[in-house]
């Protein structure tokens, strides 16, 4: 009987959250900018409870107001795995001129998690450098899926584009020990920034295999003018 009483108390709270999200979703389409801003802000504070407003939030990715856009993307990211429908629309932002928008879209996709991996994998081989770069950045936010992400990023360390290699190292550096062998490979890159980024990340590791530690030591010694 006690269990039934607890459940009967929890259900209205859940229904209230759904109702609130639906009301805010309706406000997102209002012509009044302040109402749209207020609705987007409130949805961004609701976490997974904002899921009923997902379609409306995706629609606001076309909103010209930066505040509405940013809060809508934040709300999508905080919904997390349930926001799979938003992956493709968010990827379209990778071509935006705004660095901040590209960064925020990548973050949101990273919060959606493993469901984004197939689409991001496709974008890595896109003809557009912007799409490839955005996908790499998004993968860097997916530490909870470090193994498959590392497998996607590692081949990019041999890419012809130095910018792609630099971005790949940066994202690999966020994934933890599982990416260390890939970063060790980057130590032999002919681009100083790729190498220095790899050294910086590996240098923060608590423990490294002796051969890798020796490679880093030798690299540092070779680049030391006083050596």
Distinctive features:
227 residues, mainly alpha, Leucine-rich Repeat Variant, 2 domains
Note the topology:
Blueprint: H1 2-28, H2 33-44, H3 54-59, H4 66-79, H5 87-91, H6 99-112, H7 117-123, H8 129-139, H9 146-153, H10 162-172, H11 180-186, H12 192-203, H13 210-223
General description of the model:
The chain has helices at residues 2-28, 33-44, 54-59, 66-79, 87-91, 99-112, 117-123, 129-139, 146-153, 162-172, 180-186, 192-203, 210-223. The termini are far apart. The longest helix is centred in the N-terminal third of the chain and has 27 residues, at 2-28. Helices cover 65% and strands 0% of the residues. It folds into two domains: 16-141, Alpha Horseshoe (Leucine-rich Repeat Variant), CATH 1.25.10; 146-227, Leucine-rich Repeat Variant (Alpha Horseshoe), CATH 1.25.10. By secondary structure, the protein is mainly alpha-helical.
Biggest pleated sheet: none
Query: Number of helix segments?
Result: 13
Count of structural domains: 2
CATH class of the largest domain: Mainly Alpha
The gyration radius over C-alpha positions equals 22 Å
Number of strands: 0
- Strand proportion, as a percent range, falls in under 5%
CATH superfamily of the largest domain: Leucine-rich Repeat Variant
Element string (H = helix, E = strand): HHHHHHHHHHHHH
- CATH topology of the largest domain: the name is Leucine-rich Repeat Variant
């Amino acid at each position: 009987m006690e269990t039934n009483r607890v459940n009967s108390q929890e259900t209205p709270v859940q229904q209230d959250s759904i109702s609130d999200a639906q009301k805010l979703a309706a406000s997102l389409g209002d012509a009044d900018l302040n109402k749209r801003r207020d609705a987007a802000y409130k949805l961004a504070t609701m976490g997974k409870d904002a899921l009923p407003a997902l379609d409306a939030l995706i629609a606001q990715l076309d909103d010209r107001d930066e505040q509405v856009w940013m809060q809508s993307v934040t709300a999508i990211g905080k919904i997390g795995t349930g926001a799979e429908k938003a992956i493709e629309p968010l990827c379209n932002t990778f071509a935006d001129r705004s660095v901040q928008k590209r960064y925020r879209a990548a973050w949101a996709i990273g919060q959606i998690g493993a469901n984004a991996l197939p689409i991001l994998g496709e974008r890595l081989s896109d003809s557009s450098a912007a799409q490839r770069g955005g996908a790499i950045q998004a993968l860097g936010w997916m530490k909870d899926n470090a193994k498959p992400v590392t497998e996607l990023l590692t081949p990019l360390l041999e890419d012809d584009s130095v910018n792609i290699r630099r971005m790949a190292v940066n994202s690999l550096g966020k994934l933890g020990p599982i990416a260390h062998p890939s970063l060790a490979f980057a130590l032999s890159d002919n681009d100083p920034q790729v190498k220095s980024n790899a050294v910086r990340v590996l240098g923060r590791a608590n423990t490294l295999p002796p051969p890798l530690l020796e490679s880093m030591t030798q690299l540092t010694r070779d680049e030391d003018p006083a050596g």
